[in-house]
Amino acid sequence: GRIVILEFVADKGGWERVHCETFGKSGVRRIVPGQYVATDPRGRAVMVGAVEKQKLVYILNRDSAARLTISSPLEAHKSASLTFALVGVDVGFENPIFAALEVDMDEVETDPDTHEPLFEKVLTFYELDLGLNHVVRKWSDAVDPTANLLVAVPGGADGPGGVLVCAENFIVYKNHGHADKRCPLPRRKDLPPEQGLLLVASAVHRQRDLFFIVVQSEAGDLYKVTVQTDGEDKDAVSEVKVRYLDSVPTCVALCILRSGFLFCASEFGNSGFYQFQGVGEDDESPSCSSLTFEGGDEAVVELEPRPLRNLLHVDDIDSLCPMIDAKLLELGERGAPPSLVSLCGRSARSTLRVVQHGLSVSDLAVSELPGNPNAVWTVKKRKSDQFDAYIVVSFVNATLVLSIGETVEEVSDSGLKPDTPTLVVALLGEDSLVQVYPAGIYHVRADGRASEWRPPRGKPIVQASANNRQVAVGLQGGEVVYFELDETGTLAELDKKDLGLEVSCLELGRVPDGRARSRFLAVGGLDSTIRILSLDPDECMNVLAVLALPAQAESAALASLQLGRPGTPPALFLCIGLSNGVMLRARIDQRSGQLSDTRTRFLGGKPARLFRTSLGGGDGVLALSSRSWVLYSLAGALHTTPLSYVPLDAGASFASEHCPEGLVAIAGNTLRIVSVDRLGDAFTSEAVPLRYTPRRMAHHSVSGHVVVIESDHNALSADEKVQLYEAAGIPPPLPAGTVLPEEEEADEEGGAAGGDFAALGGGGERGAVAVTRRSSRVQRYGSYESDSSSRGAEKGWDG
Q: CA 81, CA 88: separation in Å to the nearest integer?
C-alpha cells in the first residue's frame, strides 16, 4: 500500500529513497492499487492501478533546489472495472495520457447456449490535465477480447505515439483519431491451427532517427516490430511489420540497453544476457505486414525455430525459481560440508541443482610436483610489468623456480638459491629480487650482482615478510630485524627489537600508493598476542598497540579494503589466522595504529594460514584451513566467502596475459592455477538438465543415488515428440543439455558464431526444448592445455 521512489546515486553505487507515500492500509486486495504501475515517458506523472476499480495518479515536479516532489494522489476510479494492462502513452509535452485495457463487469453476460461469458474489452485513455489538476477518461475503443498486453509507441518528435495492442495471433496499432493497423504474427510450423499465440513481454529501443520494438511470444520467439509512417505526416502510421528475430527462453520482461545488449528476465529458470549481432534485416526471416493482411492475404506465415543468429548469448544470472523440492545431503567426502540438492524450473528448462555455499573456482592448470611443497609466490621482473614472470615454489630442502611465458618450465638463471627452503620471495625496488631463507637474506639485482645478509650464529630466521621496499625477519629467540631499501638500491638494516619471546608470524603489508614505506609491522608471538610496531623513522620499532588473542597467531595479513562509496580512502585491516582455525579481523587506525572493531570467523579445524592476494581489482586475503576462504571488498562492502574447491595448503596472486587476476595455489603435491568466478555470489551450483517438471526426489543412502520423479500435464514422451516433428517435416530439437561436437559447431551458420547458447524453442510447456552448447574454449599456459568444458581434468606440463 505504498509508492516508493528510489534514486540511483552513482557515487555511492546504490539506491536512495526519495519518497515513500502510503495510499492503502487494508492489505493486498484486488481493489488496492499496486498491481500495475505506469509512468509518463517524460517523467511528469505516474499511475498506480489495481486489478479492480481503483487507479491513482501522482504528479512529479522539481522544487527550486532541483529536488523531486510528489503530489497528493488524484483518483481515476471506475466501479466494476477490471484492468488487464496499463502503460504510459508518449505524447511529447502535452498533457500526460495513460492507456489501460479494461472490462466493465456490469456488462458481462452469459451465452445461453454455450454458457460462456460474453464481454467487451476496451482500450481507455486517461488524460491528466496539469492545469486543472484532475484526471478524465478521454477516449475508449473496443479491442479484441483476447488482448493482454499494451506497448507504448514512441511519440512527440520520435514517432507517431499511440499503443500496440497485443492479442492472440495479432498486433494492432491504435491511437485516438487514427485508423487501426492490424498485423498477424508468424507462427511456429508445429503449432496447432486452433491454438492461439499470445505475446508476454516487450521492450522499445530508441535512436535519434529510428526506433523498433522487440516482443516475445509465450513460446519464446522474439519478434522485431517496426511502425512505419508517411513521409509527410509523421503522426500517420502507414504500415506495421513483424519479423522473426530469434528464440530465447520465455521471459516476463525485456530490457534493451543502449550499448547493444538485451536482458531477458525470466520468472522460471535463469535470466539471460545477450548481445545484438543484428536486428533481423535479412530477407530469410519470416515476416508479416499489415498492408498484406489488409489487402486480403490472410495466409499464415510459418517459422521454424533456429539457433541464435541475431543475438549472442553472453551470460546468465542463475536462479533456483521455482524450487519444487530440496534436501540437504552429504555428497562429498566424509567431513565435507553438505550440499543443497534442489529440483528447480518447469517443463523442458527444469534442472536438478547441487548448490554449495561458496564461490565457484575454475581450473586453468593442474600439475603434479616432485614432493609436497609448503609455500608458493609469484614475482615480476620489473615493477612496471603488468604480468608475473616467475612462480617460486618452496620445499622442505629446496626451491623451484618456474618461468611464466610461452611455456611454463623450470629455470636456473633467476638468481635465486635453489638448494635451500624459502621463507619469502618479493620484488624489491624497480627490478631486483629478494629471497629470505633460514640462513640469510639474498638480494639479487637485475644486472646479476648479489648481496647477502646473514643472521648471528645460532639464530636462524624463522619468520619473514617483505614488500616492494621493506623486509622484516624474525630470528630464533624473539629478535625482529627491520630492513629498508635506500636511495642507492641497497637493502640496509635500520633497526632491531628483542621481544623476549618467539615470533610466530610477521606481516608488513603493501606499500601504499604515493608513500615510501608501509607504516606498520604486525608481529605475532607465542604468548597469544599480536603487536603493531611503528616503522616511521622517528619512532621505529615502537609498540603502538597490543591485542590479546584467544589462541596463538599462525599468520597475519594487512590489506587495504574499500568501504563505502567509491573515491573514499580505503580502510586498513589486519587479518590474523589462529591455531584453532579462527580468522580474526581488526581495523587499524592509519594514524595512531590502534586496533578496533575486532571480528572473528571460524574457517575450519586446521590452523588458519593467511595470504595477501589481489581480488576484485584491489587487495584481498586468501584464508586457508580445512576449507579455503577469501576476504575481499565489492561495491563498498566486505565479503568473507568460502571457495567451492579442494582444500588448499598455500596460495598467492597470479597475473598473466590469459588470466589477469587469478590464484596459484598448492594442494598436496599439485600446483594449481585457478580463477575465482563471480565475486559477490554466495552460492555456486551445478545443474543437471531434466526433460519434464520435477515433482519429488528421494536419496538412496546405500548407493548414494538421487531418484527424481518428473511429470507434465498433457505431455508427450520423447519418442512421440520425434514422430510429431517428423510428420511436420521439422528436425527434432536436441535433448536438453546436449553438447554439440566441435565439427558440428563449426559447420553451423549463425549459431556457431552467435554464442554458446542456442535456444530452440524457449521454455514453454508444449515440448519446446532449450539446448545448451558449450564451445571448446582452449586456454594455453605454456605447453599445458585445459578444455573449459571438462572441469577438473588434470593434465601436466611438458618438462
A: 19
What gap in Å lies between CA 67 and CA 127, rounded to an integer?
25
**Residue 746, H or E segment:** helix 742-747
Length of the chain: 799
Tell me the mean pLDDT in the region 516-539.
92
Give ∠ CA 783-784-787 in degrees, rounded to 5: 135
DSSP assignment letter at 602: E
Pairwise CA distance, residues 339 & 133, whole Å: 59
CA angle 620/621/623 to nearest 5° reads 155
Nearest 10 degrees: CA dihedral of 680, 612, 790, 348?
-10
The DSSP 8-state label assigned to residue 755 in this structure reads: B
Q: Give the CA diameter of the chain.
A: 110
- For residues 69 and 52, what is the distance between their CA atoms, to the nearest angstrom? 28
Residues 6+ away with beta carbon under 8 Å from 80? 52, 53, 104, 105, 106
Cβ(185)–Cβ(197) below 8 Å:
yes
pTM score: 0.75
Query: What's the Cα-to-Cα distance from 487 to each of 435, 443, 482, 492, rounded to whole Å?
Result: 20, 15, 17, 10
Cα(577)–Cα(555) distance, rounded to whole angstroms?
5
- Rounded to 10 degrees, what is the CA torsion of 358, 364, 369, 371? 0
SS3 content of the chain, % helix, strand, coil (to 5): 5, 50, 45
Q: What is the CA radius of gyration of the chain?
A: 33
Q: What is the pLDDT of residues 410-426, one digit of tens each?
A: 888 888 899 999 999 99
Cell 618438462, located at residue: 799
Phi, psi of 607 (to 5 degrees): -55, 140
CA quadruple 271, 276, 281, 283: dihedral, nearest 10: -60
CA distance 151 to 175: 12
pLDDT value of position 65: 84
Question: Which residues make Cβ contacts (< 8 Å) with residue 334, sequence separation at least 6?
Answer: none
What are residue 348's phi and psi, to 5 degrees? -75, -10
441/429 Cα distance (integer angstroms):
15
Q: How far apart are CA 755 and CA 774, in angstroms?
A: 9
336 against 68, higher pLDDT:
68
> Using CA atoms in the order 537, 538, 542, 545, what is the torsion angle rounded to 10 degrees?
-100
Helix (H, G, I), strand (E, B) or coil at 742: helix
Would you say 379 and 432 are in contact if contact means Cβ atoms under 8 Å apart? no
3-state secondary structure of 241: strand
Cis amide linkage into residue 322, ω under 30° from 0 = yes
Model pLDDT, residue 760: 25
- d(CA 365, CA 670) in angstroms, rounded, equals 10
Q: Which three cell numbers stand for residue 349?
A: 528448462
- Neighbour tally for 247: CB within 10 Å: 28
Nine cell digits for residue 343: 529440483
Q: Report the distance separating Cα 773 and Cα 462, nearest Å.
A: 53
Q: Which amino acid is at 413?
A: D
pLDDT at position 752 is: 34
Q: Is the pLDDT of residue 794 over 60?
A: no
Is residue 221 over pLDDT 90? yes
At 741 the pLDDT is 57
Burial class (CB in 10 A: 0-12, 13-18, 19+), 101: buried
pLDDT at residue 171 is higher than 90? yes
13: left (phi over 0), alpha (psi -120 to 50) or beta: left
Q: Let me know: does 247 contact 237? Beta carbons within 8 Å.
A: no
pLDDT of residue 738: 55
Pairing, β 187-188 against β 302-303: parallel
pLDDT of residue 792: 34
Q: What angle (nearest 5°) sits at the alpha carbon of residue 46, between those of residues 40 and 50?
A: 125
What is the share, in percent, of the chain residues with pLDDT greater than 90? 52
